[in-house]
Design a protein that fits this description.
2 copies of one chain form a homodimer.
Chain A: H1 8-16, E1 31-40, H2 41-53, E2 60-63, E3 87-91, E4 94-99, E5 110-116, H3 118-127, H4 133-136, E6 142-149, E7 159-168, H5 172-180, E8 191-192, E9 218-224, H6 227-235, E10 240-244, E11 250-255
Helix pairs in contact in A: 3-5
């Protein structure tokens, strides 16, 4: 994975002027990257409440003022209409367009939600000496829809989506404590061990992403996944919704360390 | 302080039938007690956003569905209209009434917010062997308005209120780690040392509560305080708002330990 160690401000400027168009993995390492969901104000209360009630899959790190594309809390001066390489526009819950600039689609009633992502806790796991096979093998992390119901909020309800990483048994406690310090990036695992206990029929056949398997001496460890809020929101078919395109995240000015609760 | 070790369900039943009318300190020790704020749906988005943006003073542990008085997430079967001994009703930001039963005042558009309170982290501090002078002396904790501005949200803005506990220098690290594990109850201190640095002119003259002083070898340690959200909400003079009366908290079914992130 190529690394671009520049500050997020410089990288966002390149993205804004169209000079960087790829996925954001490896960019500005050490800084929090975030999932984006944009909804009209009339849907925003239910979505905000859904996130508040389901903090593990939906760790909110920023909510903009109505109509403002500037995430002042995590990246003052940034513009959420231009500073992500690729966006998806949904109408009535159906993908309608994929674009590189939201400016023509912006409306005065839009609210942007930024949610912490697994990059932050994966950085913490690696830092704690825990190997991550999907990274070693250059794959996407494996993800499943589970039998765990999110707590509904207004129009939004649905199952929790999880990602799985096989962890050597001896490193399980460290995997829990290293990720638990980051509730703003999904926090501690929501399940360890038997995949069937959370409704996963086959740990070698993910619903999304790539299979990496679970070897002898390893335990499958499941973390709540940021795919959850988008899947849940889209399932209720909102008239208008925008998200980032998968892999094309928003890069904040917040160091990963700043999300640690201790 | 008299201790009533029964389960919260039994104590709430006594409160509901009018058999317990006092403050809730010492009731159901080990269970989370919560601050209450009730607002109409039209003000609820801004308040929810304010809490999301200011999690230290405003640690949300429950938000009810519109019109429902049941906090299903933290005390299924409870009724927020009757299960707190005393409430305050505000009209246009002014105290209009203090009542023991909200039933006659209930409306279909009300949303109830429950916020974690200092009892939980004080329990964690005591459990870690840290003495708390205001408890030893049977006083209220000392509180101040600070020069730290909360991040505004819509109609709500104002300064952070903090509480202060004098901590022996040797116990400072433990005081931080013990409270940091509980972001749902204000979390780690927001300041340690010089009161003037956060706009407190005289550490012996609190804006609310009782002075306990700071002795040689002690450091004043400041935590964000649950008075903040009520003060901020009332300052914007909402047409209608209900809170618990100070000291008369809602007792949840959630053990203090369950709020720990690790």
């Amino acid at each position: 994975m190529p690394i671009d160690p520049r500050h997020p401000k410089e990288i966002r400027a390149d993205i804004r002027r169209g000079a960087m168009t790829g996925i954001t993995a490896g960019l500005a390492p050490g800084f929090v990257q975030a999932n984006l969901a944009i909804l009209p104000r009339e849907d925003a209360y239910d979505f905000l409440l859904f996130c508040q009630r389901n903090p593990r899959p939906c760790p909110l790190i920023e909510v903009t003022d109505v109509g403002s594309p500037e995430p002042v809390g995590v990246a003052p001066g940034a513009d959420l209409r231009t500073d992500i390489p690729k966006y998806r526009i949904y109408k009535d819950g159906v993908l309608a367009d994929e674009v590189t600039d939201l400016t023509p689609f912006w409306r005065d009633d839009l609210v942007s939600f930024l949610l912490g992502c697994s990059f932050t806790f994966e950085w913490a796991l690696l830092d704690a000496g825990i190997p991550l096979r999907h990274i070693d093998e250059g794959k996407n992390v494996a993800m499943w829809k589970t039998s765990i119901a999110c707590r509904p909020a207004g129009q939004f309800h649905g199952p929790m989506v999880v990602s799985m990483r096989p962890i050597p048994q001896a490193l399980l406690p460290k995997a829990v404590t290293a990720s638990a310090r980051f509730p703003g990036a999904h926090g501690a695992p929501i399940h360890m061990g038997d995949p069937g206990a959370i409704g996963i029929a086959d740990v070698n056949r993910p619903d999304w992403g790539d299979s990496v398997g679970v070897r002898a001496g390893e335990v499958p460890v499941f973390w709540a996944c940021g795919v959850t809020p988008q899947a849940v929101a889209l399932a209720s078919k909102p008239a208008f919704m925008i998200t980032h395109s998968p892999g094309y995240m928003f890069i904040t000015d917040v160091p990963n360390h700043a999300l640690s609760v201790m």
